[in-house]
Design goal:
This protein is an all-alpha fold and 173 residues long. Helices cover 64% and strands 0% of the residues. This is Apea-like HEPN domain-containing protein.
């Protein structure tokens, strides 16, 4: 009788946490890593969709930081607010910006919305709602805007530095 050898993980290897159990910042990081990989594989449209996902998860993270961590509101209440807001526009414009109105970063956050997030969301909508395909230049711009936005907003809470920067291979040539 031949003894079967396991080809999977050894008992000493740490199993990766399931996505559903990952924290908001871990979800942002995983999706950002995925977006970078999609861009490298020249899957422009899917990379753009993943960037939009990153931004919405980033807003979830920021709102939970403000309302649960800082203001001590119940997590279930905040989760219901986020669920009802549904979509980056409602979450950012109707929840996050009003929460941040009391802080000096408010104007910078409004500028981020107007100059970067709106553009990423518009590109996402062209793909998701109109079935368009996007090219390398569109994806490059979206990744640059997403990278900048993630670092700015996550940085307000001591996160963001661990996210890999977006480095376009064409810039190094």
């Amino acid at each position: 009788m031949v003894k079967r050898v396991s080809l999977g993980r050894t008992k000493t290897e740490k199993k990766k946490k399931s996505y559903s159990k990952a924290s908001d910042d871990e979800k942002v990081a995983r999706n950002w890593t995925k977006a970078l990989g999609l861009y490298e594989r020249e899957e422009w449209s899917v990379a753009i969709l993943r960037c939009a996902t990153c931004l919405e998860l980033m807003v979830n993270f920021a709102i939970r930081q403000e309302l649960v961590t800082e203001k001590k509101l119940p997590l279930q209440f905040v989760d219901k607010l986020l669920q009802n807001a549904n979509g980056i526009h409602n979450k950012y414009q109707n929840l996050y910006l009003p929460i941040m109105a009391q802080y000096e970063e408010h104007d910078d956050l409004k500028r981020l919305w107007n100059q970067r997030i709106v553009k990423v969301n518009a590109e996402r909508n062209k793909i998701a709602h109109q079935g368009e395909f996007r090219n390398c230049q569109a994806a490059r711009t979206v990744l640059q805007d997403t990278s900048f936005t993630l670092r700015e907003v996550m940085g307000l809470y001591g996160y963001g530095d661990e996210l890999a920067p977006f480095v376009d291979p064409e810039d190094s040539e």
